[in-house]
Structures are given as C-alpha cells and as structure tokens.
Amino acid sequence: MPESLLIAQISDAHVGTGPDFLGGRMDTRAALQRAVAHVAALDPAPDAVLFTGDLTERGTAAEYAQVAEALHALPMPVYAVPGNHDDPKLARAALPRCMPVAADAPDGACCYHQALGRLRLVALDSVVPRRSHGALLPSQLDWLATTLNALAGDPVLLFMHHPPLPTGLAAMDACSLLEGGDRLADLVRRHGRVQGLLCGHLHRPVQMLFAGVPLHVAPSVAHQIDLDLRPEAPLRVRLEPPKISLHRWRADIGLCTHLDYVGAFGEALAL
Ligand SMILES: [Fe+2]
User: Fold this and answer.
1) What domains can be seen in the chain, in order of their start residue?
2) For residue 254, which of 217, 214, 216, 208 has the smallest C-alpha distance?
3) Residues within 5 Å of ion ligand 1 by Cβ?
4) What parts of the chain have a pLDDT lower than 70?
C-alpha cells in the first residue's frame, strides 16, 4: 500500500476579537479551541496540522499566548504561516516550533520547509507589513527557486496565507496576492512535482487550479465571508458553521481534500 498522509488545515482564527465581536455572536478564542479539540479527536489522527494565517486579530503578544495555549492540545506537528492580521515576529516568538524559519530565509520572511513522510512542506510568507493584500517579493521567490531545486524530484506541498488567483469574491480579490503570482506559477510548473497550494484569507472554502496543481483555500475556523459574487458586493460576514480542511495525500493519487464541520454539525448518526 502506498504511503498515505493526513494533513488538517485550519485557518483564519482571528483570536483576540473580544466578546463584542459580531454583536457577541462570535468568540474567536473559543472557536479556535473547538477546532483544535475537533482535530485532536480525529481518528485517524492527522500527521500534521497546517495553520494558514490570521492566527490573531491584532497580532499582540497576549493574543499569541492564547493561540499557543490552544494549540498545546495538538500532539502532532503544527506548522503555521502569518496572515495580514499577524505580527510575524511576535508570532514566531510565541510559536517557535510552528514557524521553524529557514536559516537562509530572506529579509526575515517566515519561509521554511519541513519533511512529512515523503512529502516536503514548503511555507511561504505573503504578508506585506501593515497592508491587507499579499505579495511574494523577488528575494523570497529566489529562495523558493533554490529550495525547489534542492527538492527536485520530491513531492512538495506549498502553503501561504494569500491566494494567488481571483475567485469572484470582489472585495477579497482586491486584497489577495497582488505581486509574485506569475513567477510562483512558473516555479510550480518547472518543479513538476508540486502536489498543491494551500491558502487561507478568504474565510471560504474554494477550489481552483493554479499552474496546473490544486489550489485549496480553507474556510475559517471562526467567521466566514458572505458568498456574494456580485462585482459590487460589500464585504460582509456570515456565521456559517466553522470548518476545517482535511487533506489526504498519496504519492500515486495526490491530494484528496475533504471539508469537515466543527461542532454540533460534526455529529455522526448511525444509518
Ligand atoms: Fe482572515
């Protein structure tokens, strides 16, 4: 039987919104705790958890302490990338094992790679300081080119916060990855064994192809963005059931992605 790996993806927790967020109807700290408890109870257990950014709302040390406390319940490796609501330095200080930044990472970017079985996880840092949109700077794309060269022939799974393609969610498209996407696509094509690209940021589950490989955007473990595809749609939140993404990977199949509801929607009933 070929090796199979199970990877849970959680995203956009925004811990630190406070008790009055959305009229008191969304406690993001409790939402992350519920998602973590859900992942910890999965059988089979995931081999790793990827956290695709916006760990916190304001990027304060106190918020990261709450995230670290919540993630402590997970026995498997957790790897994270920062989102536009994060402070990458404070995040790394609070969660050093979740962000094992490569010694050769350029300009302090939170990029690194880790082995998970035969798969190579490669983290990219799409954060532009104090801006909501994302970018991959030439220095980081140079690092990625060198890294992918070193991983030639290995299956690679990329993850970062900002999706590199528009999705029709106009307000979010305006603040997705606005620089570096073309060269990223070129590097993905040239490597030839990239298994997929996992992102967050949209607070909605979205599947696309990017440079011929699966691009999966995970929903939020807290509040979702309203699904409104009108070009003039305002940015609104919808309190849909929180979800995580579960990726099963086999070398002979590639990625198979499931969405898994957190909480009461996760109850299984015998038929
Ligand atoms: Fe977010």
Assistant:
1) 4-266 (3.60.21.10)
2) 214
3) 12, 54
4) 264, 266
